[in-house]
Amino acid sequence: MSKKNTKLVKPDKIIKDITNLMLDKKAIDITLIDVRGITALTDYFIICTSESDPQTRAIFNHIKDELIAKKIKPWKTEGYEYLHWVIMDYINFVIHIFNKETRAYYDFERLWGDANIIKIKN
Question: Are 119 and 6 within 8 A, CB to CB?
Fold first, then answer.
């Protein structure tokens, strides 16, 4: 990962809300990857790491419930039954909740090295 691509900045409101929801449930290593202009898949990947299956479930449910309360529903979710890598696709942003091993294996920051990678401060 290139240091020039890593910045500590405040993302827009919804992204900030999501990262705060992750922090509420003690997610670690929260990262925002801005892929606008690089891919048509989405604008942002919001990534965090969970330290256990119950924590992954709690992070997922907390984000889903709070966003539904704001009338924001996921287009698609995947991985909840296994909890190694849970994806919440909201079209303009995609949330990835990884366990430590899966996060290390896929290394999204390396895969999207051309993107603006933002580490979220606790």
Answer: yes
CB distance 44 to 33 below 8 Å: yes
Task: Decide: 58 and 25 in contact? Cβ < 8 Å.
Answer: yes
Residue-wise pLDDT for 4-52, tens only, equals 443 333 347 899 999 999 999 999 999 999 999 999 999 999 999 999 9
Q: Where are the domains of the chain?
A: 3-119
CA dist 39 → 3, 94, 100 (Å): 21, 13, 26
Round the CA-based radius of gyration of the chain to a whole number and report it: 13
In the three-class reduction of DSSP (H, G, I as helix; E, B as strand; rest coil), residue 9 is classed as coil
pTM: 0.88
Structural class in CATH, domain 3-119: alpha beta
Q: pLDDT, tens digit, for every residue of 48-67?
A: 999 999 999 999 999 999 99
CB 51 within 8 A of CB 100: yes
By the 10 Å C-beta count (0-12 exposed, 13-18 middle, 19+ buried), 68 is classed as exposed
